[in-house]
Amino acid sequence: MDRQRISSGTEWEREVGYSRAVRTGNTVHVSGTTATEDDSVVGEGDPYRQTTRAIENIADALDEAGADLDDVVRTRLYVVDIDDWDEIGRAHREAFSTARPAATMVQVERLIDPAMLVEIEAEARVED
To answer: Whose CA is closest to 8, among 52, 58, 50?
Structure first.
């Protein structure tokens, strides 16, 4: 099986042993992605901004794998406060209004950095 690994170059990938995304055949799996830029959290305290930044990071990984947001068929959103669902949902809707993927949003106790409010996984299917 051919496997294309996409790396964002963060220290976490080496330490934990994962890739930002993996493409096998016509499927792209994007790991849990947060609102980071240059190893800093973007939009601290702002669930909408963090969601949009996480989706921008997902879009970058998808692009490297030959896909885009319109190819996404599944998202999973892990949030630290489910009461932020409307702002997180608005950002998700704006990014995926065409694709309208199957989606799950669940509250978790915490993410790896206390400043992080949302983490998103995505799966995309592309034409061969």
So the answer is: 58
CA dihedral 63, 64, 67, 69 (to 10 degrees): -40
pTM given for the model: 0.94
Per-residue pLDDT of 6-55, as tens digits, reads 888 777 778 888 889 999 999 999 999 999 988 899 999 999 999 999 99
Per-domain residue ranges of the chain: 4-125
Beta strand spans in the chain (E): 4-6, 21-24, 27-33, 36-37, 40-41, 72-79, 102-107, 118-125
Phi, psi angles (nearest 5°) of residue 46: -120, 100
Measured CA to CA, the distance from residue 5 to residue 61 in angstroms comes to 10
Tell the residue number behind the tokens 């509250």, with chain if given.
107
Distance, first Cα to last Cα, the chain:
15
Q: Which CATH class is domain 4-125?
A: alpha beta
